[in-house]
From TrEMBL:
InterPro entries: FAD/NAD-bd_sf, FAD/NAD-binding_dom. This is FAD/NAD(P)-binding domain-containing protein. It holds the Pfam family Pyr_redox_2. It comes from Lophiotrema nucula. Residues 5-310 form the FAD/NAD(P)-binding domain. PANTHER family: APOPTOSIS-INDUCING FACTOR 1, FERROPTOSIS SUPPRESSOR PROTEIN 1. Transmembrane segments: none annotated. GO terms for cellular component: cytoplasm.
């Protein structure tokens, strides 16, 4: 029997979820027809999964957040599946040929290879402008970055953070409490402040998806540990004065002021990792342009899908993947089944975004703010849920092992209006 690949590019939250879902609910249910076996092939530059959620604390201290809590080997998470059903390729995808239906990969050993695909899932995610929150190559590279940062952090007196989204606020809180200590009871500022942490917000409030009262609460907690916020201002230039990426930096603001920072951290948001994706597949934000209902990348030809932050359908975030991954992978199963049997389907699964106010953020190890499902949560609850270890103990290893995808889940079938045109029923 011949073997065909369901190729998944990227092994962060979306890629791991897609791989486990495919192995549990797609491959076992495909028709046994045509003399073909299907293997899930996962491509990723690192053999380890980076629990990015813990990045703000991991960057600050390996004592507070040891590597064992945010770096996890990928392969053991797939050992329970039948032999031959899963293949991991450590390498970097460099090109996609939609006509030949192949992915070009440069492996960790420097070899160049082409992997054919029967179906392709793009889960390439985002990179961050600061190296503190992205595993660009492997775990050793990320660890070395943290070593460099933690070497200079203890002596820094002024730390400027560009961006007031969740990463900027969380890392600001971690740094402020690490350097200035916990505030005393009823104190509005640190008792013995050693450093000043400045967060530059382009908007009139921090934390865009949360209400203003929660943003103000976050600012109050930041002030108690030596943080401050500059609103309605952007960082327009950040010029390092030496070769050290975490060294003294002149920071020019849109209000005309220039500030001197011992350390500057760019936390202005993630950039889609789509440089190797064909330009015709991308939107104006360099996100992968997809059908927002089916998560198919229609322009890419039959059986190509996107999940995760690189997709045009989502505002981003791990919570959203619980809705997106089952949709994309169910449609993949429907499309592959049709290609195997030669019969056009009559139904498909549709994605619905959850844009409720749901985000929780520690402000250092002691405090936190957030909401879930539109309900504001008290600080002690944030500390209990996320503040202890950024949910590493509860969720990191289960993510690698795919525990959240044990059940396929119920869904309401939607009619297929024009299958041949949309997903290439007649294509091989």
């Amino acid at each position: 029997m011949s073997t065909e690949n369901i190729v998944i590019i990227g092994a962060s939250f979306a890629g791991l979820g897609a791989a486990h879902y495919a192995l549990k609910h797609v491959v076992p249910q495909l028709p046994k027809k045509g003399g073909k076996n299907y293997t899930v092939t996962l491509i990723n530059p690192s053999k380890d999964f980076y629990w990015r959620i813990a990045g703000p604390r991991a960057a600050v201290s390996k004592t507070l957040m040891p590597e064992s809590k945010y770096i996890f080997p990928i392969a053991p998470g797939f050992k329970s599946y039948p032999k031959g059903s899963f293949n991991f390729v450590q390498g970097t995808a460099t090109h996609i040929d939609s006509a030949a239906r192949t992915v070009s990969v440069t492996t960790a050993a420097g070899e160049h290879t082409q992997i054919p695909y029967a179906a392709l899932v793009l889960a390439t995610g985002i990179s961050t402008p600061s190296p503190l929150f992205t595993q660009t190559t492997d775990a050793a590279g990320l660890s070395a970055t943290y070593d460099s940062f933690q070497k200079v952090l203890p002596t820094a007196k002024t730390i400027i953070i560009g961006g007031a989204g969740p990463v900027g606020v969380e890392v600001g809180g971690e740094i402020a409490e690490f350097l200035n200590g916990k505030p005393g009871w009823f104190q509005s500022k640190p008792k013995n402040q050693k450093a000043k942490v400045i967060i530059v917000s382009a908007e009139k409030k921090m934390l865009p998806i949360l209400r203003e009262s929660i943003s103000k609460k976050a600012e109050k907690f930041l002030k108690r540990i030596g943080g401050e916020v500059i609103y309605n201002t952007k960082v327009v230039a950040a010029t390092q004065e030496g070769r050290d990426i975490f060294g003294p930096t002149k920071v020019v603001l849109s209000n005309g002021k220039t500030l001197n920072a011992d350390i500057y951290i760019d936390a202005t948001g993630g950039r889609p990792q789509t440089s190797f994706i064909p330009a015709a597949w991308l939107d104006q934000r360099n996100k992968i342009n997809c059908n927002t209902k089916t998560l198919r990348v229609d322009v890419a030809g039959p059986r190509v899908y996107v999940v995760g932050d690189a997709g045009s359908y989502t505002r981003g975030g791990v919570i959203d993947m619980a809705n997106a991954i089952p949709v994309a992978l169910t449609n993949l199963k429907i499309d592959l089944t049709s290609q195997i049997t030669g019969r056009a389907p009559t139904q498909e699964r549709h994605y619905t975004a959850d844009n409720s106010e749901s985000q929780i953020l520690p402000i250092g190890p002691s405090k936190g703010v957030g909401a879930f499902g539109g309900w504001s949560l008290p600080s002690f609850m944030i500390k209990m849920i996320k503040g202890k270890d950024y949910m590493s103990k509860q969720m990191a290893l289960p993510t690698v092992e795919g525990k959240q995808w044990a059940k396929e889940g119920k869904w309401k079938p939607q009619p297929v209006a024009a299958f041949t045109e949309k997903v290439g029923f007649s294509s091989g």
